[in-house]
Amino acid sequence: MSNLIFSDSFINGEFYKTDTHFSVDDPATEKSIVDVSDIDEQGVNNAIVAAQSAFVKLKATNATQRSETLMRWYELVIKHKQTLAELMTKEQGKPLKEALGEIDYGAGFIKWFAEEAKRSYGDVIPATDNSHRLTSFKQAVGVVAGITPWNFPVAMITRKVAPAYAAGCSFILKPSEHTPLCAIALAYLADQAGFEKGAFNVLVSQNAKKVGKILTDSEIVRKFTFTGSTGVGKQLLAQCAGTIKRTSMELGGNAPFIIFDNADLDAAIEGLMAAKFRNSGQACVAANRIFIQRNIIDAVLNKLTPKVAALKVGNGFTADVDIGPLIYPKAKEKVQQLVQDALDKGAVLIGDNSDLGGSFQNPLIVNNVTTDMDIYHEEVFGPVLTIIPFDDESEVLTLANDVPYGLAAYFYSQNIKQVYRISEGLEFGMIGVNEGVISNPVAPFGGVKQSGLGREGGHQGLNEYLEEKYVCIKI
């Protein structure tokens, strides 16, 4: 693993050292992995200049060349899959088996956009007279800046950088200060794959606000992409308004998971376990509000409770661990606060909530959750299932939609008419029907309402980094 651990920002194909450092810690052991350089203002400005220079070079490349470079990057990521996964478990905490899965998933975006790079089509437009020829074609938007979170420290990056490069854009990335090591390793491998110098820069910093302000204020940066909380997303959108940047935002969620009384209960519980407990519940698409038709609650809980109790919590490097640590102690404190508020207001706890120490949190079920509880309205970024009873289809649609977020939703039903009604009635950007894992590089990922703008993945993901140009020729 040591050959891909780097401690400095990566700018213009070189490591950039500063005199200020901070520690990247292992959330399982709470011990330092390495001290990394904290980027200074000069480094951020250097990255902007380098990215602009790289963009000029990228203009001279064609789609096939960029596709081939992306495929080399993909092959290097797969070649170093084990090393990258171990690095991810070390700095993020998720079980190694999940980290290996994320490397495959993240690499899938590189491979997909290597293919999509060659499919940026334009149009020939029928003219309104015989003296004109009308066409449109797409060009790269320019220098892109992005901020990514800690929960998926590879996939959140590849699904932004890969389409940007495929389109012909250079990229400046500010990863989470909790998980910068995977980001630097990815940039190093991209450089080894033949990315133009400055085409993928990584800025490591504890001061996301300062770095973000420089990037959003820059006239050179023409597109800004962010994955994180809705509150921070709103602030970044406001900052981008000053220079009228293109933006794409993948923000908060509060995903409903609905089990109707006609569902295959075994399949529904299997889907729920996957949708809730992956990455210890630390996912924006994690099932957050579990709506179960009232007449089957006992049957569902009888099947669900032993499965939740059987989940093993521990260090992600332990072979049979299912639930790793939360990212830091404050995350655990917030989970505990939400659970306690629910219990104080009449909810019922199922499971062992004894303190495991550090950032480790036992998986729990909180039954009889109502709309006056904080846990109903806030994302539970942890391994806690909240059970909410409902009586009929109309009621659960109203409850599911009655939040400002609209990222992902899930439901289980064997009634085909109901499948269409609920799919169309849910106000969310992504719907899992009889499926708890829906993310896929070939499909558009994104939400509606306050869950964000734009899409990542699918052919739509490439268009986020392209501008359309119309040409009118008089002949």
Which helices and strands, and how do they pair?
Layout: E1 9-11, E2 14-16, E3 21-25, E4 32-37, H1 41-59, H2 63-79, H3 81-92, H4 96-116, E5 123-125, E6 132-140, E7 143-147, H5 155-167, E8 171-174, H6 180-193, E9 200-202, H7 208-217, E10 221-227, H8 230-241, E11 246-250, E12 255-259, H9 265-277, E13 287-293, H10 297-309, H11 329-344, E14 348-350, E15 364-367, H12 374-377, E16 384-390, H13 393-401, E17 405-406, E18 408-412, H14 416-425, E19 430-433, E20 448-449, E21 452-453, H15 458-463, E22 466-474
Helix pairs in contact: 2-4, 2-5, 2-6, 3-4, 3-6, 4-5, 9-10
Domain Aldehyde dehydrogenase: 20-471
Keywords: Oxidoreductase
Enzyme class: oxidoreductase
Give the tags.
475 residues; alpha/beta; Aldehyde Dehydrogenase, Chain A, domain 1; Aldehyde Dehydrogenase, Chain A, domain 2; 2 domains; seven-stranded mixed β-sheet; six-stranded mixed β-sheet; 40% helix
Write down the domain tally. Answer: 2
Specify the CATH homologous superfamily of the largest domain: Aldehyde Dehydrogenase, Chain A, domain 1
User: Could you tell me the radius of gyration in angstroms?
Assistant: 23 Å
Class derived from helix and strand content: alpha/beta
CATH C-level label of the largest domain: Alpha Beta
In the predicted model, the low-confidence regions spanning at least 5 consecutive residues are none
Would you identify the CATH architecture of the largest domain?
3-Layer(aba) Sandwich
The fold-level CATH name of the largest domain is Aldehyde Dehydrogenase, Chain A, domain 1
